[in-house]
Specification:
The structure holds two protein chains of two kinds. By secondary structure, chain A is mainly alpha-helical. Chain A has 13 helices and three strands, in the order H-H-H-E-E-E-H-H-H-H-H-H-H-H-H-H. Chain A has helices at about 10-30, 35-55, 60-85, 105-120, 135-150, 155-170, 175-195, 200-210, 220-230, 245, 260-290, 295-320, 335-355; strands at about 85-90, 90-95, 100. Chain B has 23 helices and 22 strands. Chain B is of the alpha+beta class. The chains are: A mainly alpha, B alpha+beta.
């Protein structure tokens, strides 16, 4: 039974705060060119809120029972994308259902977390896991990653791998397994470079390593984003007053670069507040993981914390020029219904765990 | 659930590590943001502003070229040009623009090349791709503008030559600065797509005519579109535009000494022939009143969009229409040169005006025979000039000698450019004994002098030099630097610079001897035995002139390659005011071809109220 005083207000307030500034920011990014995106996002927020409430109300332990079927459904939806998906800008990522585009790979992140939590919970290995114990979780991540790469969507594949890695590092590994994983990773890197990455992706990474390479080409977006961030200075240029944003020098304002919009208009102070909120949310999720009553809840919270952390860190790192440009969204800031719904359901799961400590 | 509620202690430690790692990662972001926003914030803000601010040139109105009577021969009219910002332009838009503007295939190809040539930041700079579109194109491009992002229309003044081909060589023409010049003349402020004076006065007075472009600062969004003032005010960046406007300074007007009525007459007079030139100079000032080169061309062709056809027509025309035959070419002078051996002999007392020499139609020198047109009998100098007797001048040549002939030639300005400075004038050539020693296998021989005295040696002059030579004889020996510009004035009419006549030197010949030569030359036109007798001179006008038929040594192009026909004259003979020289390339006899043309110009000059009539009857073809 949920008692009102055990409702996790801290978690709720943090998420609502991020959502509100995220919506403000989306308005600033879109009002001059694509005002309809804002109202669409409002609708998605509403749907996301329902998702959040449902996830919070549902005992997460019940979810454990349907984790595998959900995972399978997720994989099937990814397969479906490859056949009936909608192609935008050369990537086949969306399925249209009743006029609404959804991105199954977003939901897959949660499915993966649930499935891994279930598996690691069901098969505890007291003396630490060897490599063979990781075979099934590895397969769990490899299948959706392979499917997502086919779309192609490097960013989402990366997030899936990083969630897997974070969760694996949490559990007890044997030394040999750890070393093997590192070796596998090292071997995979050049293969990834030569086989998995598309030419434009390689260009981005090269440009990141050597910014002067192509100032008007691949480096252009990244440079304009840096200029926007820097131009915000301490106090920002004011809401709706960032020229990089409002005069459209900033590319991908509502998808990959909303943080640059925020940083330009709210400055260093605004950036610190926003990143502070994200960090708080992540740490809170880690705390919930730590406080969870059993392994399943702990892994679930860790997975959601990893999801949030990697999204924020990669996105902001990319905007601020410490990471190459990879298409990873900023949770609750980037436009996109599936992304919003995924994040809010994920936070709903956190709430569910929090309510049942 | 089969796991106990409390976590294992090692798991708790892992969570703490995780939290620390997350904090550390965010710390990296904080430090980075501090660097960007606090450390380099000002720099990035400037860069953000630089993104917006564009300096658009305000085209300076080029100075006019005005002829002697105040009519405009080079003017400006408003035109619309199409600019494209390569960054926001792609293949489909190129095709669309081509369709909308109705462009030929090769025009689109050239445009594509230019757009692809734009690299890096140049891709964000608008390029002028179409110049001077017509009203239909303007309307269509304007209508389609919303579908053509990155396309902009700009107004600019365009050069126009209302007199079309009249005076084309002296007025000159303009075309676009080339990539090479853009590098070498960057300091002078030339930008891609600018026009620059290429020939004639447009080139010579480029600096005065050009003026200085102004600039206006505007704010452009990322697509290169200009944003309205209200929006800029809304964004609070109006200050970026403050104090940024620099008005254009109009170029200065150039006022000519050339009278375009007379210019038309001159062009019509030589227009009956295939190629030729005519120059008319005021005797007492050295001012050029007409300066015609045939064939001519329409300078408007170069300023607008030159069609490939037009350009290749001009370039492949065997008559080479772009050559200014008044100054850029030099010719054997033929008999118009005879005044110089005559003057030299008179000056040195080698002949008297009374002395008669018998012409039997031939002159023997060693084993060679030098021929005359026919046997003139006993002739004095006056008769020899009027009838163009060669034998008389063979004898005179023997007395004067090669080098004294060269001396007097130089004195009258032959062998070096006149100083007009227009169209890369050449200086002609004066042959000397030394030159023959150096350049001829057999060295110098007296025969060269005989030919030289007849203008048939190796001495060459330009048509302008010929006119100047006769003007100098007629004005008592003052060799002027010829002038074609009377003054330079500001756009509002204020005189900035007035050019006074400028004498180069005074020849050391007694004025009465010069006067006598002028008198003697009246016989050419007015004596029944004169070579140009019968050419219709206006009543009351006395013309003193000399015919010349310069034989071309080598028959290069068969029968077509006839002698050059010359006539040089001054009028009125009693008190000369104007000197004229006419040359018709391969025209045949000077008396039949060049003299009528020259006298037509003189008649028109002295009948000047009637010139307006002549002007309306049309120009030379």
């Amino acid at each position: 039974m949920i008692r009102a005083r055990r409702f996790d207000w801290t978690l709720a307030v943090a998420v609502v705060a991020i959502s509100v500034v995220g919506m403000l920011n989306l308005y600033s990014a879109t009002w001059t060119s694509r005002p309809q995106l804002y109202s669409q996002q409002v609708s998605w927020m509403g749907i996301g809120l329902v998702g959040f409430a449902a996830a919070a109300a549902l005992d997460y332990r019940t979810l454990s029972r349907v984790a595998y079927p959900l995972y399978v459904a997720g994989v099937l939806s990814l397969v479906a994308v490859l056949f009936v998906g909608k192609t935008i800008n050369g990537a086949r990522r969306w399925i249209e259902i009743a006029g609404i585009s959804v991105q199954p790979s977003e939901f897959m992140k949660l499915m993966l977390i649930l499935a891994m939590a279930r598996f690691l919970n069901d098969w505890p290995v007291a003396e630490g896991r060897a490599l063979r114990h990781l075979a099934i979780p590895a397969l769990m991540v490899a299948v959706p990653v392979a499917l997502v790469l086919r779309q192609p969507d490097l960013g989402t594949s990366l997030i899936l791998v990083l969630i897997f890695a974070t969760v694996v590092l949490l559990i007890k590994l044997r030394r040999g397994a750890l070393i093997s994983l590192v070796i596998v990773g090292a071997l995979a890197a050049p293969l990834t470079w030569s086989h998995l990455l598309k030419d434009y992706q390689r260009q981005r990474i090269l440009t990141f390593l050597e910014p002067g390479r192509d100032p008007a080409g691949a480096g252009w977006h990244a440079r304009q984003a840096l200029t926007a961030v820097g131009a915000g200075k301490l106090e920002g240029r004011g809401f709706l007053h960032g020229t990089q944003t409002q005069m459209h020098f900033l590319p991908e304002r509502w998808t990959d670069f909303p943080f640059a919009v925020w940083a330009e208009e709210w400055g260093f102070l605004g950036s610190v507040v926003l990143l502070g909120l994200y960090l708080f949310l992540i740490l809170w999720a880690v705390r919930l993981a730590s406080d969870a009553r059993e392994r399943f809840g702990a892994i679930l919270c860790t997975g959601v914390a990893a999801l949030l952390f990697w999204h924020v860190f990669i996105n902001v790192g990319m905007v601020a020029g410490v990471l190459p440009v990879v298409g990873v969204t900023l949770p609750l800031f980037s436009y996109g219904g599936s992304s919003v719904l995924t994040v809010l359901v994920g936070v709903g799961l956190l709430m569910s765990v929090s309510l049942r400590r | 659930m089969n796991t106990p509620g409390s976590q294992a202690p090692d798991l708790r430690r892992r969570f703490r590590v995780m939290a620390v790692v997350a904090c550390a990662a965010f710390a990296v972001l904080f430090v980075r943001l501090w660097q960007l926003q606090i450390g380099a914030g000002e720099q990035h803000l400037r860069r953000a502003h630089a993104n917006l601010v564009a300096e658009i040139p305000i085209a300076a109105v080029r100075g006019k070229i005005v002829e002697a009577r105040g009519r405009i021969v080079a003017d400006n009219r408003p035109t619309y040009d199409v600019y494209v910002t390569p960054r926001f332009f792609d293949e489909s838009m190129l095709a669309k623009l081509g369709k909308v503007a109705g462009l030929e295939h090769d025009r689109i190809e050239r445009m594509r090349e230019r757009l692809h040539g734009a690299k890096d930041l140049v891709r964000y700079r608008p390029l002028r791709v179409l110049r001077d579109i017509d009203r239909d194109q303007l309307a269509r491009v304007e209508t389609a503008r919303l579908e053509l992002p990155g396309v902009r229309l700009e107004w600019s003044p365009q050069r126009i030559y209302p007199m079309k081909s009249v005076g084309a060589h002296l007025v000159g023409y303009m075309n676009e600065v080339g990539p090479e010049e853009l590098r070498t003349r960057r300091d002078e402020g030339y930008a891609a797509g600018d026009l620059i004076g290429r020939a004639g006065l447009e080139r010579l007075f480029e600096t005065s005519l050009r003026g200085r472009d102004g600039r206006e600062r505007v704010l452009l969004d990322a697509r290169g579109a200009r944003r309205p003032k209200e929006e800029i005010a809304e964004l609070g960046i109006t200050y970026l535009l403050h104090g940024a406007r620099e008005e254009a300074r109009a170029g200065h007007d150039v006022v000519l000494t050339v009278d375009f009525d007379l210019q038309r007459v001159a062009e019509r007079a030589i227009g009956r022939y295939r190629t030729g030139a005519a120059v008319a100079i005021e005797v007492d000032t050295g001012r050029i009143v007409a300066m015609a080169s045939r064939p001519t061309f329409d300078p408007n062709l170069f300023t607008g969009e030159v069609t490939v056809q037009d350009q290749s027509n001009l370039e492949s025309d065997p008559r080479r229409p772009l050559i200014d035959r008044t100054v850029r070419e030099n010719y054997f002078p033929g008999s118009i040169f005879k005044v110089l051996p005559a003057l030299s002999a008179l000056r040195d007392g080698l002949v008297s005006t009374e002395e008669k020499i018998e012409c039997k139609g031939r002159h023997e020198l060693g084993q060679r025979t030098f021929r005359c047109t026919h046997a003139h009998g006993k002739v004095n100098l006056e008769q020899a000039l009027a009838r163009s007797c060669n034998v008389y001048f063979y004898q005179l040549a023997e007395r004067v000698g090669m080098d004294r002939l060269a001396d007097i030639s130089w004195e009258f300005g032959l062998g070096s450019p006149t100083g007009l400075g227009l169209n890369s004038e050449v200086g002609g050539f004066v042959a000397t004994k030394d030159w023959y020693h150096k350049h001829w296998k057999e060295g110098f021989r007296l025969g060269f002098t005989l030919n030289a005295a007849l203008g048939q040696g190796n001495t060459k002059m330009t048509v302008l030099q010929a006119a100047l030579l006769y003007a100098t004889i007629a004005n008592g020996g003052r060799l002027f630097v010829p002038q074609i510009v009377r003054r330079i004035q500001a756009a509002d009419g204020r005189v900035l610079q007035e050019f006074a006549p400028q004498a180069r030197r005074t020849v050391k010949i007694q004025p009465d001897q010069l006067r006598w030569i002028v008198h003697a030359l009246t016989g050419v036109v007015h004596d029944p035995h004169g070579t140009a007798y019968g050419v219709k001179v206006a009543q009351t006008l006395t013309v003193a002139g000399k015919t010349g038929t310069a034989e071309i040594g080598v028959q290069r192009r068969g029968a077509q390659e006839g002698s050059h026909a010359w006539f040089a004259a001054v009028a009125p003979a009693e008190a000369p005011r104007i000197a004229v020289a006419v040359l018709i390339e391969h025209g045949g006899q000077g008396s039949k071809v060049a003299a009528p043309a020259a006298i037509e110009i003189l008649n028109a000059y002295f009948r000047s109220p009637d010139l307006k009539m002549a002007a309306t009857t049309g120009e030379a073809p």
